[in-house]
Amino acid sequence: MTMTPSPLHPDLDRRSRQLRLAIVDAFASAGRGHLGSAFSLVELLRVLYDDILRFDPARPRWAERDRMILSKGHGCLALYAILADKGFFPRAELAKFCAADGMLGGHPEYGKVPGVEASTGSLGHGLSIGVGMALALRGKGRVFVIDSDGECDEGSLWEAALHAAKHRLDNLAVLVDYNHMQSYGTSAEVLPLDPLGAKWQAFGFAVEELDGHDVAALRAALRRVPFAAGRPSVIICHTVKGKGVPFLEGNAKWHHKTKASAEEISALRAALECA
Amino acid sequence: MRKTCLDCVYELAKADERIVFIGSDLGAGVLDAFKREMPDRFFMEGISEAHLVGMAAGLALEGRIVYMNTIATFITRRCFEQIVLDLCLHKTQVRLIGSGGGVVYAPLGPTHLATEDIGILRTLPGMTIVAPADAGEMRRMMPLTVDLPGPLYIRLGKGGDPIVTRPEPFRFGQAYPLRAGGDTLIVTTGTMAQMALDAADRLGGTAVLHLPTLKPIDQEALLAHLAPARVVVTLEEHTRIGGLGSALAELIAETPFAVPKRFKRMGLPDAFASQYGSQASLMAHMGLSTEAVVATVDELRRSL
Predict the structure, then answer these.
(1) Is the pTM of this model over 0.90?
(2) For residue A165, is it within any domain?
(3) Do domains B2-155 and B176-302 have the same CATH topology?
(4) CB contact under 8 A, B54 and A137
(5) What is the full DSSP assignment across chain B?
């Protein structure tokens, strides 16, 4: 069940690097952002939007779409990059990240950003909203929720897990971006979660664990949800915070970076362009 | 009043498939008919208020109209952030029904006394707050709760409250005069209307204005009633901080009235309840009784 993060991730391909460069562009425009938290979930979002989710960027409220809630709202730079890539809004919006006249804030807002299903930022809310949506959409639609490992500290998340299991919501799938880091340091130090998969299993979920930067593994797993009839699914995605840029990886100082210098921005771009 | 409220939820749900009910862990038998006849829309979900408010928001974002009920303390304090973000920020049509507003649960002690629910919810953008005075008003209000935009908090009294309102159409945000009077005005909300009327009977020359809606507040009616008044008292089963009295104080302080006034907020003191007993005995102990209202008005009148 448990799986330690492997240092031997498959190299990031061109698409993963391009998405990260778009994230860096948005980050650079504000000089701030949760960059490490965004980089750890790029492949999760990329596979969801490229291969799994049903959506129409021209009709973001299309009734038959799949719902995707980024419960770890602080990872929104990655969500903005993929939504812009898919055409939910013009890419030029990325250059107004956190700007007074922009619509893309430091946490995503429902009703402001096309494609954003719920306003998140305070942790431990998204899964409850997702449970409510999955109840309403049972037999009609699917709901995906991305939680962070730090978010698993929140009691409300486990309340939501109990209810998802009670209602046998097999139209609900959770992806835990388990990057093993939170703001202060490692999750092992701040609040140990292991064995995380076993916890979700005990709460009634069908569990899979994989390398969250392995696009093929993510694609294969997400195509198999629900993993068990009558049970909600969870994929524990072992990831690396800051994945793709050596000086970010596992570096808590980049959890929420502010006042990024021109040199740092250049170094970010150089690392991704050369990777 | 609680029974009327939940009966109305059942009747409204029978007529409107969008309506769902969520209870936390209510007493056995609550809304049995709802559960039997509309099982897909009946959720008795356990003691997880924080999650349940979020879940209600998710249902509402998918077009459901959600009525959620548990004890007033737990449906406001325990899940306050979910109310702020999942309900108010998302403008979801979730109706929180708080049982036992004020000190209804006096024998159960401070953990069960909802003495600040109006105050904390009044600070939230887009929140509508109501505290009907009796079952008649509740019955007239409930059909309008279906299509009200955004979240709503319904504060329930103990039940069996005397009928003090007249059968006139209910409107959110409207104040209702219960008694015309002279130079004294008592402004009240919820089931305190009865105490206000009793005090007015003894005082004479005293008008009673009932505000079933605490937010949005009926500024127009208030200003009209406040203008000629020389003595104004607010009466609420709630801490004096942040509720009806504070709302009136804010309005009065910002309005240049031609007639100067003496003003007093009557409510619960800034203290946890120090004894048990009954709702009435605890209120009296904490300074809320007909006699205390009469004495307060008399004192203000003498100071004119």
Answers:
(1) yes
(2) yes
(3) yes
(4) no
(5) -HHHHHHHHHHHHHH-TTEEEEESS--TTTTHHHHHH-GGGEEE--S-HHHHHHHHHHHHHTT-EEEEEEEHHHHHTTTHHHIIIIIIITT--EEEEEES-BTTTGGG-GGG-BSSHHHHHHTSTT-EEE--SSHHHHHHHHHHHTT-SS-EEEE---SSPPP-S-S----TT--EEEE--SSEEEEE-GGGHHHHHHHHHHHSSEEEEE-SEEES--HHHHHHHHTT-SEEEEEEEEETTTSHHHHHHHHHHTS--SS--EEEEEEE-SS-----S-HHHHHHHTT-SHHHHHHHHHHHHHT-
